[in-house]
Amino acid sequence: MATLTLKRKLAILSDAAKYDASCASSGSVKRDSMGGKGMGSTDGGMGICHAYAPDGRCISLLKILLTNFCVYDCAYCVNRVSSNTPRARFSVEEVVDLTLSFYKRNYIEGLFLSSGIIRTADYTMEEMVRVARSLREVHDFRGYIHLKLIPEASPALVNQAGLYADRVSINVELPKDESLAALAPEKDAAGIKKAMGAVRVSEDAAKDKGRKTRPPKFAPAGQSTQMIVGADDATDGAILKRSESLYGAFRLRRVYYSAFSPIPDATARLPLQRPPLIREHRLYQADWLMRFYGFARDEIIGETEDLDLAIDPKLAWALKNRGEFPMDVNVADRERLLRVPGLGVRAVDRIVDVRRYKRLELADVKRLSRGIEKLKPFLVCADWSPGALTDRADLRQRVQPKQMDLF
Amino acid sequence: MEVVRLAHETDFAGWRQAARALRARHVAPDTTLWTVDGQANLFDGASPSEIASEGPIDPRSETAGRFTVPKAFVDLSAKVILHRSDERFALLYRLLWRLQDQPSLMHIASDPDVGRAQGFAGEVSRAAHKMKAFVRFRQTSDEDGEAFVAWFEPAHRVAEATAPFFARRFANMRFSILTPDACVHWDMTELAFTPGADPADAPAEDALEDYWRTYYASIFNPARLKIGAMQKEMPKRYWRNLPEAALIPELIAQAQGRTDTMVRQAPTEPSRRVVKAAIRNSRDAPWEGQAATSLEEVAAGVDHCRRCDLWRDATQGVVGEGPGKAKLLFVGEQPGDQEDLAGKPFVGPAGQVFNKALAEAGVPRTETYVTNAVKHFKHELRGKRRIHQTPNAGEVTACRWWLDAERRIVRPRVIVTLGATAGLAVFGKPTPIGKFRGQPIQLSDQAQGVVTYHPSYLLRLPDEAAKAKAYAAFVEDLRLAWSLAA
């Protein structure tokens, strides 16, 4: 076999990594390279997106596979053993060099390393840990590292990965365990859950205040996961119920939803129809409502239902619960204002701040929000009451966006 | 008309000095004009220090020159000054003027002046953020070795304000960032600033850019084109200094064709399908049929058990722990939050009470077998918390398959049931603890049963006296069980 150039390897192994939606570099601790011998910093909260691809996704990290050789045969994956995709493998040194060279030129925030399974789970995990160890210990690299964990790898290796990485992740891949068994025969839903549980136990132990010697930090940016939407018959309700239980059990920072997209060299086991991208968008909106807006999952959607693609889930909830409206912007609690369609967390916080000093009128709300027309039926201000507007039968037509905002 | 001539575009100190003096002299905003040195203007204007030294302070004002403003205003002004709008100095002075009568003005985001200033500050923050994102260094070298230089055109005058970020990030790398407004230099010890430069002063290329473009093109998924989302976050004004942006038109043009090809291509048949199916079948072997004859089989079976629905939301099945031939077997209710994550019984808060009581009763836990009536964690979610729910009779019955297997394999002399659920599972009928505790009960498999409280019951009792009493009884029951097993 002819030797591949580094550039060709980079093309193959980043192409193979692009089906992982996550590229976040956020949520870690604050650190920088002052006083060190290497480079790199993370600012704690917000990450930085260094570029955007024409698919609208943020490019924050060098997201690559160590290798796309894989012994598994997961139907939805372009790297499955039975696929005829071109294969490549990086050496540990090549990944380290690329990461540092890109970082020096300010192309990236750090590395997101994943891999196909070669030989055994432990062998593969060990190679990935070697990359992270070299970056941290040999080069004193203080940028962001996200490592994909292999659920079947030994706990000792997972633990080492957590010590070097800012974030770790294991993908649950499919919303239903039954689908995983059907589409990814070598993957084990029970094993995935156990591994995520073990990560949370390690995270909790690292935060334990009761211990005298402070244990080393374990993946300070926590863990995340990804579910593929539209590769099986799971409803949106079932998907969100799964997310809800994942957030509850493992304290995940994020659940990523990735609309199943056609891959080169597909198998017959997959549906031919791809789901609309708007479905993914609605799932994210519903996920946000559960995490930041105080909605319970069953308020948004029943387990067997799908989200309305034409309007966002908050507006859908408001239309079904007209009795809750209109809300008085000058009186209603923060929690209740967060339920008004068209008001975001930032707008609500500003309203709560301003109304301590003056009674808000419609013009004030307009300046604090992104458009007043959608809000009018749901709000009472000092100089505005919607009257019968809230209960009109054609309210949905009036507030529904004229065209889909994404397609 | 008062005309102020500031030293340069981002002269915050000068603006502050002049504004303080003007306000003390009651010079109204609409009679003040702000200019910057070097700008063509009809008026000459006075520098901030001239204004500060000029003219007597208005005798009507008793506190002249010693007024205070909210910190929020100072912080906001420092940002707004960096905006490219010519209006910024006057806007800030107007706000300063109005703060006199309205001390809480800065909290009123719905006020047009405050809203405009906050809008400016937001745009400046965004420009600083985009500078952190879109600066692209090129490698050069000089007599001191390797160095990096970037040419960048920020949307607002944020070069100096953003420089410390780059110094902290690249502490051990010499770099310069050249912009039209100001240039930033880091020599690995301190930051230095020089006047604006020209794009020709930066290196023209870097060999790594080809790799970066390769990565950019490969990470793009042509099946999901969202051009609007890209341009919202990476506006075209930045494109000319981004090496990867030259590829964008071509990537967009080819996207549809590449996707069509993928969809058109016939699916390929996996080659080892039959083998895989065999592996799958052996792993997912059903629980019907032969009962488990070893604890390993129990552990493997519980993990894939589908006899009831509790497996769905639980992390894993939690089987018993302890020597395979223990004399004493404890049966609890079900794993809790901690047990579910760790995969071991009695490691959470109830486990700690249990361990303490065992130690007081002189029972070594490592010589006993500890398990639960139900092997998966039943719970409901409240917010992000998982709240324990008592398993129902159907779930207890379904899980007896595994408990009975454990009893058969371990063959203990004594079985202690902790709580009502365990009682139901072991005796097959409700056994009220108050009525049955303190006496051994003969079981059909030759073992003796001892009924007692569940440790978490001891945690829940609100009354301290009742808690102490129940705990003492619990320890006594453990002692009884241990003596029966000896």
Walk me through what this model shows:
The complex is a heterodimer of chains A (407) and B (486). Chain A is an alpha/beta fold and 407 residues long. Chain A is 36% helix and 11% strand. Chain A contains 14 helices and twelve strands. Chain A is globular and about 75 Å long. Chain B is an alpha/beta fold and 486 residues long. Chain B has 18 helices and 14 strands. Chain B has helices at 12-24, 48-53, 71-80, 88-99, 112-134, 159-169, 208-219, 227-233, 248-264, 273-283, 295-303, 337-342, 349-361, 393-410, 420-427, 433-436, 455-460, 464-485, and strands spanning 2-6, 32-36, 138-142, 145-151, 175-178, 182-186, 191-195, 328-332, 369-372, 379-382, 385-388, 414-418, 441-442, 448-452. In chain B, the strands form four sheets. Chain B has a five-stranded mixed beta sheet with strand order 3-4-5-6-7, covered by helices on one side. A five-stranded mixed beta sheet of chain B has the order 9-8-12-14-13, with helices on both faces. In chain B, helix 3 crosses helix 5. The relative contact order of chain B is 0.06. Classes of the chains: A alpha/beta (407), B alpha/beta (486). Chains A and B meet through helix 1, strand 3, strand 4, helix 2 and helix 6 of A and helix 5, helix 6, helix 7, helix 8 and helix 9 of B.
Question: Key features?
Answer:
heterodimer, A: 407 residues, alpha/beta, 6-stranded parallel sheet, two-stranded antiparallel sheet, 12 strands, 36% helix, 11% strand, globular, B: 486 residues, 5-stranded mixed sheet, 18 helices, 14 strands
